[in-house]
Design goal:
Elements (H helix, E strand, L loop, with lengths): L30 E4 L15 H14 L3 E3 L7 H11 L6 E7 L2 H8 L5 E7 L2 H8 L3 H17 L3 E7 L6 H13 L4 E6 L6 H14 L6 E6 L6 H11 L3 E4 L13 H12 L9 H12 L16 E2 L2 H9 L17 E2 L7 H10 L6 H17 L6 H13 L2
Parallel strand pairs: 1-2, 1-8, 2-3, 3-4, 4-5, 5-6, 6-7, 7-8, 9-10
Bound molecules: acetyl coenzyme *A and 2-oxoglutaric acid.
């Protein structure tokens, strides 16, 4: 589909990135594993209640998220109970949970009725020396036993290499091959401290893709946002052959957080045309997680931030009044959002005329100029925008005085 123009009839709610037609990538074959309930909850100060976790899990399932990481059962009895409850909710999504590379953790996880366990092990020199105080061989031995234990109990396995991106690649691949030999269903590349960039994400996943039978053992990508590249790296990994992409709602998670679900899903739609996820409640889900986590969402956050569909600039609003897609990549309704046309310092005459018409007023030329001038003075001297109520008051005052 070369030279595909942006075609409104064909893409009524959003523009796809038609430049993708010119770049060569592997076919994208992905699933989403959302880790809000585990890595998201590791955000300092966050502790979801059982009801909150179950409600978020239901919401993720409604969107069509393929896998939900429900928690880390050895953290507490209550955590174990929540993981087990989510696993028994009858969701379409498969449920997994985290365990260290120890038999005790895997036993606890197996007892939670999850579809698969994510057994993690760090193999970087830093982690072996300062965290485990053990040799790589000793740790691998325990990890492989843990995989075998889970498999013997009829449960799926993801073998997750924590700090994979600071681990020598041959060591990483050897460990992944050991996991593959033990029939691990997934191997996970965790960019635990967010050091990757898109080109190194591509390089690393490509190396692993060429070494592993990905029909049997699929590659997962788990990105942190320490350099603000988590979503970009996740997509680069998908282009290089990673199958399971890890996300959290609002990008919450350890330190700077993880790849944001809403951004990854929107990119899957715009960049690769993947439209099987129901995006209509993304803003609702974002608010639900904001309230449950007590973590504000940045006003300019992509897709779900309050300003994602807010416009003030005169040139923009004038065009938006004709067709919103002039300045919106996708319509707010697509994600359950709302467009806001703001009256402020940068409002132009066409925009103001459109906005006042929208609230039921039409002014003659003189009155309109008076209103326009008043708005400039208020917004510049008081350094703020003018809300609808105030705008109406200004209009009524002008009409009264004439
Ligand atoms: C990258 C990630 O996100 S990893 C997940 C991080 N999440 C969490 O830590 C969840 C919250 N954690 C907790 O509730 C607790 O730390 C628990 C329940 C997991 C463990 O608690 P404790 O038994 O008190 O251990 P503590 O936290 O002090 O230390 C961690 C231990 O786990 C070991 N460990 C850490 N990762 C692994 C691993 N992948 N495989 C095996 N052992 C591991 C450490 O070496 C240390 O062992 P040690 O006690 O023999 O020194
Ligand atoms: O790769 C995974 O599945 C989990 C690892 C993880 O949480 C991390 O290293 O940050």
């Amino acid at each position: 589909m070369k030279n595909q123009a942006h075609n409104e009839e064909q893409y009524p709610d959003y523009c796809r990135n038609s430049l993708m037609d010119f770049v060569k990538i592997k076919d994208i074959d992905i699933e989403i594993c959302d880790v809000t309930l585990r890595d998201g909850e590791q955000t300092p100060g966050v502790a979801f209640s059982k009801e909150q976790k179950m409600s978020i899990a239901q919401h993720l399932d409604d969107i069509g998220v393929d896998v939900i990481e429900a928690g880390f059962p050895v953290v507490s009895d209550a955590e174990k109970d929540v993981v087990k409850s989510i696993a028994n909710m009858g969701l379409d999504a498969r449920i997994c949970c985290l365990c260290r590379s120890t038999q005790k953790d895997v036993e606890t996880a197996v007892d939670c009725d999850v579809d698969f366990v994510s057994i993690f092990l760090a193999m970087s020199d830093l982690h072996l020396k300062y965290k485990y105080h053990k040799s790589l061989d000793e740790m691998l031995d325990v990890a492989m036993n843990a995989i075998e234990y889970a498999k013997d109990h009829g449960i799926g396995v993801r073998f997750a290499a924590e700090d994979a991106t600071r681990t020598p690649i041959p060591r990483l691949i050897d460990a992944f091959k050991m996991a593959e030999e033990r029939n691990a269903d997934y191997i996970s590349v965790a960019d635990t401290v967010g050091i990757l960039n898109p080109i190194t994400a591509t390089y690393l996943v490509d190396q692993i893709y060429n070494a592993i039978d990905t029909k049997k053992t699929k590659i997962c990508m788990h990105c942190h946002d320490d350099l603000g590249l988590a979503v970009a790296n996740t997509l680069a990994a998908a282009e290089a052959g990673a199958f399971q992409l890890h996300t959290t709602v609002n990008g919450i998670g350890e330190r700077a957080g993880n790849a944001a679900l809403e951004e990854v899903l929107m990119n899957l739609r715009v960049q690769y045309g993947i439209d099987r996820y129901d995006l209509h409640t993304l803003v609702d889900l974002s608010h639900e997680v904001r309230d449950a986590s007590k973590l504000d969402v940045a006003i300019n956050k992509a897709v779900v931030g309050q300003n994602a569909f807010s416009h003030e600039s005169g040139i923009h609003v004038a065009a938006i009044l004709e067709n919103p897609r002039t300045y919106e990549l996708f319509l707010p309704e697509m994600v359950g959002g709302k467009r806001n046309l703001i009256v402020g310092k940068h409002t132009g005459t066409k925009a103001l005329a459109g906005i006042i018409k929208d609230i039921g007023y039409e002014l003659d030329e003189d009155n309109f100029t008076t209103l326009f001038d008043q708005i400039k003075i208020i917004t510049e001297t008081e350094q703020r925008s003018v809300e609808r109520d105030e705008l109406e008051k200004l209009i009524k005052n002008i009409l009264k005085n004439n």
